Amino acid sequence: MDLSRLRIPKGDSPAAAWRAGRVVLVSAAAGLVAGFAAGRLSAGRAGGGPIEVDTVMVGAAGGAAAPSFTAGGWIEVPAPHFPVHASSLISQRLDELNVAQGEAVRPGQVLARLYDGDARARRDAAAAQAAGAAERLRIAGANRERAANLPAGALSVEERDELAAAWSTAASAHDAALAALDLASNELAYCTITAPPAPDGLKVLAVHHAPGEWIAVDRNPTVVSLYAPSNMQMRVDVPQAKIRLVQPGNPVAVRTEAHPSREYRGTVLRVEPLAEAAKNTITVRLRIDNPDEMLFPEMVAHATFLSGRAAAGRPGEFALPLKAVRRDGEGAYVLLVEDGRARRRPVTLRQTTDSAAVVGGELSAGQRVITSHADGLPDGREVITR
What we know:
This protein has 386 residues and is of the alpha+beta class.
């Protein structure tokens, strides 16, 4: 900005000079605002917020996996294997709780501890009794061995029988002391509640008791409920008029209301043999094939059923609109929406028409492919579907 233009000429009046200066200041401010807006726009194009995109669902070639209908439901943990109940095996007061709802846990991790003062005292007493019984057995065994090494006739038959009986009594007492020690040790071990083994890890679904509460094994012994994030399913209420379109093995695309830009692949597990007259629906359960850390039990979700099985048609061939297939120096490719981002996936053109294409590649029926932004999007660009 030329500051000399703000100088008040000697021949001008102060009012005229102030008006001239104001014009220059307003023009400069307008320029700064325009430059800031242009910079923001440029930053948005370079990767600011998510870009809205149009998508289409991948279908097996021949239309075997075309979108059929959408129904609502919720995410759940699959019964009967989950949830896993970490429970108390004895009635006792809860002293320590080490986890919270939603927390990831490791196999063997200590989840909670019960009051163990009495159990520890009983274990220590049993250990002392076992040690005494072991000493008495050692003495009885030594006496029997010395008697066996004495010359014939040194001890009467009655004396030898007494030594043998003493050893047998000591051995029985030792066995009983060891059994009591095992019971006391187990009772003490029951005061520590740990996470069970799980190959893919577990998360806390719910906490059922607070420290200081009395846990009764005959009423509510469960301290913590756990589930496996890698093993999730969905319950869907399908209108009875649509149930004929659902078969076990059908592919499904699942979206939650919490994260509508994330799409999960699912497979129909079973159709429950019971209708709900009040809602005019039949329950269908789906397996979520690609769950992630953003999927929680009881989330409201929507399932788009695809007619036919995912493997229908020629294996490895998929039907797409021609505008979804892009080309550059590296060949043909599509842009998938995965976890809210555009992901480049190479494909091979097998057949094309004026508006459609059959491609081969590492795709799955039910995935979503971007059809807008013909000028392309960088791999990894954050997107949101319209």
